[in-house]
Amino acid sequence: MIDIDGGLLGAEAARRLRQADCCVIEPGLSDDEFERIEAEYGFRFSADHRAFLAAGLPVSSPPEEGDTWDKPWPDWRNGSPDDLRSHLAWPAEGVLLAVQHGYWHASWGKRPAESENARVIAEKHMATVPQLAPLYAHRFLPTGDGTHGHPVLSVWGTDIIYYGEDLAEYISHEFEEGHEHSEDWNPQASVAFWQDLVE
Q: 78: which residues sit within 8 A by CB, 6+ positions away?
């Protein structure tokens, strides 16, 4: 079943990215490629993220100064599997690093005194939280077949902020010079756990 609203949102995001003329865009991912990627990495793209990547696969862009990624757009077609796995793991790994420095989510119960024991428990909890898929550098979208319209999150450990009300608005915010959020800009967290960390 096709998610029409998600498809329209993803197509609009792709149109805005082409208009911004900020990166190389290869032909979009095919249904077979999506099937392979989702099977290999164990998640399902949201409908808008899927439509965005089907319209064109952005593969290169100048990295931001001091950025972690040489190639901030994940290359789902030809990228290194290790790099893609590392990019997918970035949000959870950031939380686990924060746990070693004192962070603890209230829903996890009492924190163990030893940081290594705390990390073990946190890893079990993090394995159950909704997956985030990398969009660009440390900007992420929640995953989930048939879902769409999630805010784009900028994720750095437990320092998480909204970076776009949805995928299309994010593209404008990130890549269109002089773009300002509208006066009624009011992104709403849409997935469990991560919504607790949004500032």
A: 59
Query: How do 132-136 and 139-142 pair as beta strands?
Result: antiparallel
Structural domains of the chain, count: 1
Question: Contact at 8 Å (CB) between 75 and 57?
Answer: yes
- Per-residue pLDDT at 1: 39
> What parts of the chain have a pLDDT lower than 70?
1-4, 61-69, 199
d(CA 26, CA 23): 10
Q: Residue 116 is encoded by which pair of tokens?
A: 């290594």
Q: 107: domain range? A: 4-197
What is the distance between the alpha carbons of residues 89 and 83, in angstroms, rounded to a whole number? Answer: 10
User: Is 139 in a helix, a strand, or coil?
Assistant: strand
Q: What letter does residue 135 receive in the DSSP assignment? A: E
Helix pair angle (81-100, 31-41), 10° resolution: 40
pLDDT for the residue 178: 77
